[in-house]
Structure formats: C-alpha cells, structure tokens
C-alpha cells in the first residue's frame, strides 16, 4: 500500500529539518549566543519564536519531556540570550550546517512550493507551528528552506500531540507506545526526554493495566490506539497537501528526497534516532 501522502511528505522533509538537532553548528551557535549546555540550546532554540516563554507551556507543547528537564532550561535561558537572538543565530547555524552537508544546490522551486504549503496551513490549536510560521523569512534560499520545513514539521507535530492527547495518553505514555512499534528504542528516548526509571516503569504499568502493553509489546488494543493516533496525525496534517495539490506534493517529494538522503549519508541525521525518522 502507498503511505498516506501526509506521512510521505513528512518522511521526505524530516531529515532536512532534523539537522538542527544533530549537526554541531546549531549547538555551537547556542553556546556562542550565551546559552548554557546543549539542552538549554534545544529548548530555547525550538521555543524562541514564542518569545521569553516559561517551562509550563513549553512542556505542554513539546509533550514528551519530563517537566523538570524543561524547567532546568527555561526561563533561565532568557537571562543569557534574548529569544530574537536565539532564533536568528539558530537559523544561521542550520543554514551553515546544510551548506556543509549539501554543497551547492538549486532550491528556488522547492522553497517556493514549501512556502506555499506553509501559507496554506491553519494553526488552530497549533501554537508552536503558528510561531514558527510567523518567524521573519530570511532572503537566503537554504535558510528559507529550513524555516519552511520547521513550520511544516511543527504543524504536523502539534497535530500529533492533539491526536495522542485525544487517545488518552500522556507524553511519556505516547513515547512508550511509539517505542513498542519498533520505530525507536528506550535507550535513545529515555535519556533524551529526562524520565527516571521509576517514572518509566510506572507509566508502563499504567499502559499494561489499560490493556495496551504486554511485556513491552503492543497488545491488539494498543496497536489500535497507536494506529488511531497515526491516522489522526495524518488527517490533521492535510493542510499542506490541500494547499499544494497532489501533483505539487509529488514534486516536493521528488525535489527534497535527494537532499534528505544526502543529509543522512553525510551524517547529518543518525539512524536510528528518537523521532523514528528514516532515510527516505
């Protein structure tokens, strides 16, 4: 079966976006602007378009992180660097990373299509995506490319959170069911999300009691819940598809897939990873 077009678009775009999490340039830029440590750079960088925001709404929007992990970074980050400076240097650093990973590349058509897709998105109940879509657009093609992928990625991500919450899962429980699909591993996710072993086991016990997990594997009921989440995520990610139309969606995938493969092959995105992204 052909994958859902929304999922196909995400899979093609995600490696280009995910450079921000794995390339050394964004981490170096966060340090240079005054942020303390990799995780402060992550939380401040991803939340920067929202302004000097505190940990509670960021925990809510980012969804899968232990609250104390977010609180170690925010709001302290804003005493070291203003959100506007964090945002500007983050975009510049990702542009530098993509230049290194991709080399010279023609982007005009792809960037135009992606910005058309962003313009067609609705942002009801999607605060993180709305903030990224409202960020000032640079005049440099690689920076514009990445900013468009960020807005589209957070649009899908906000919808994914809505779908998981509607299915009755906490952020940690959603991570546990994701791991149970085989898309990623506990070893990758737990340290990256800040949960203790006790919290991990307690959440597992809750899912077992609900009949969703058994021995670390999804039960039939758990598989149904996970399938519902993924299908709803795809449904909620339909705006870019409608804005572009099927022919233009196929063209975006055609244009961006070689770039994403180059990112992976050049070491810009490790496989496997906590998001479950793969080489398209």
Main attributes?
single chain; 280 residues; mainly alpha; 16 helices; 2 strands; 1% strand
Strand proportion: under 5%
**Class from helix and strand fractions:** mainly alpha
What shape does the CA trace take? globular
Main beta sheet = 2 strands, antiparallel
Order of H and E elements: HHHHHHHHHHHHHEEHHH
Give the low-confidence spans. none
Overall description:
There is one protein chain. The protein has 280 residues and is mostly helical. The protein has one domain. Helices cover 69% and strands 1% of the residues. The protein has 16 helices and 2 strands. The chain has helices at residues 5-22, 24-33, 38-47, 55-62, 67-71, 77-80, 83-102, 108-119, 127-133, 141-166, 171-180, 186-193, 197-209, 220-236, 239-244, 246-265; strands at 213-214, 217-218. A two-stranded antiparallel sheet has the order 1-2. Helix 1 crosses helix 10 (141-166), helix 3 (38-47) crosses helix 7 and helix 8 (108-119) packs parallel to helix 10. The mean pLDDT is 96.
Summarize the structure.
The protein is mostly helical.
Secondary-structure blueprint:
Elements: H1 5-22, H2 24-33, H3 38-47, H4 55-62, H5 67-71, H6 77-80, H7 83-102, H8 108-119, H9 127-133, H10 141-166, H11 171-180, H12 186-193, H13 197-209, E1 213-214, E2 217-218, H14 220-236, H15 239-244, H16 246-265
Antiparallel strand pairs: 1-2
Helix pairs in contact: 1-10, 1-16, 2-3, 2-7, 3-7, 7-10, 8-10, 9-10, 10-14
